[in-house]
Write a structure and sequence with these properties.
Bound molecules: S-adenosylmethionine, iron/sulfur cluster
Strand content: 15-25%
Number of domains: 1
Helix content: 25-40%
Order of helices and strands: EHEHEHEHHEHEHEEEEEEHHH
CATH class: Alpha Beta
Largest sheet: 12 strands, mixed
């Protein structure tokens, strides 16, 4: 079954957040004192999250990305992932993680049926990494990347959020990493989710990131697959891996958007930067087993054409990305 919205876009990708909690405190993702903790009663059980995932696949979703907060900090995540992997009709099960717990968990995640990992890494420099994440140790993430490869995962996507004057001087180092490693390094424009003061000063347009790399290396465009995300991808000539640019601010990709989000409290967001939200809990509690699927189809139908954010304008309500899943 195909899931098409009222703007003719095919929606086949669900980002499913399983927790708002995290073992890091990235400055672009949450305030310094963390997010206000949701009580256990607000967070959906794995049974309910599984029912949503199944209903979404029945409605036409083909790819699920499990995210958070940090998904690996929620107890019982591995059997939950194994249950998702077994949903008939689901073609891709992938996970986004900060990598901190991968040294101990990569093997069991692979055995559970997770097909690929996105790992967030914003700096190679221990002090910069600590400043961005407020508490993190970059060595754990680098060990996590190695552990993922040893566990048999395909080469990961590495997500770097580029911030002016914070880590933008490492763009070339990240690009260089693809010369010898088959990673897909993606440079993401910083988004003013929390609307921190003077956020405009932190943004580096994707075009500028690309120009900096192109000034040093020859870049060839990469043709992408049908389930690929919104990045524009290139390969440094002769490199083992690829680089990609994701430009939510400077270059909307709303016209090609193929995703919806469900948070760990059962809230559906059909657009990351529109304030419209819908609570799935009543549909979960209803007796009718088809209601969830029908509700998801209706919500997709009403998905907005585009968000209203740009390089100098943000009029959404401030939110912690950790509560939505990125
Ligand atoms: N904890 C996991 C992680 O960090 O990969 C998964 C959740 S995190 C919210 C998902 C992604 O959102 C990460 O790659 C993170 O860098 C990105 N993200 C969070 N806040 C962002 C922001 N303000 N601008 C751009 N990307 C952001
Ligand atoms: Fe945690 Fe990921 Fe947000 Fe960083 S970006 S605080 S690792 S949820």
């Amino acid at each position: 079954m195909r899931l098409i919205d009222s703007h003719g876009r095919r929606i086949n990708y669900l980002r499913l957040s399983v927790t708002d909690r995290c073992n890091l405190r990235c400055r672009y993702c949450m305030p310094a004192d963390g997010v206000e903790k949701l009580s256990h009663g607000d967070i959906l059980s794995y049974e309910d999250l599984y029912r949503i995932a199944r209903a979404a696949v029945a409605a036409g979703i083909e790819k699920i990305r499990v995210t958070g907060g940090e998904p690996l900090v929620r107890k019982g995540i591995v059997p939950f992932l194994a249950s998702l992997a077994a949903i008939p009709g689901l073609r891709e099960l992938v996970l986004t993680t900060n990598g901190v717990l991968l040294p101990e968990m990569a093997g069991e995640l692979r055995r559970a049926g997770v097909q690929r990992l996105n790992i967030s890494l914003d700096s190679f420099r221990p002090a910069t990494f600590r400043a961005i994440t407020r508490v993190g140790d970059v060595g754990q993430v680098l060990d996590g990347i190695i552990a993922a490869e040893e566990a048999g995962f395909p080469a990961p996507k590495i997500n770097m959020v580029v911030m002016q004057g914070v880590n933008d001087d490492e763009v070339l180092d990240f690009a260089r990493m693809t010369l010898d490693h088959p990673y897909a390094v993606r440079f993401i424009e910083y988004m003013p989710a929390t609307r921190e003061e003077n956020w405009q000063a932190l943004t580096v347009p994707g075009r500028e990131i690309l120009d900096r790399i192109a000034a040093r290396f020859t870049l060839d465009p990469v043709v992408k697959g049908a389930m690929a995300g919104p990045s524009r991808d290139f390969r440094i000539r002769g490199a083992a891996g690829t680089i990609g640019i994701i430009t939510p601010l400077s270059g909307h990709f709303c016209g090609d958007c193929n995703r919806i989000r469900v948070t760990s409290t059962g809230t559906v967001k059909t657009c990351l930067f529109s304030d419209g939200e819908f609570d799935l809990k009543p549909s979960l509690r209803a007796d009718d087993p088809t209601l969830l699927t029908e509700t998801l189809r209706e919500l997709v139908h009403g998905k907005p054409a585009r968000h209203g954010m740009s390089a100098d304008r943000a009029d959404h309500r401030a939110f912690a990305m950790a509560a939505v899943g990125g």
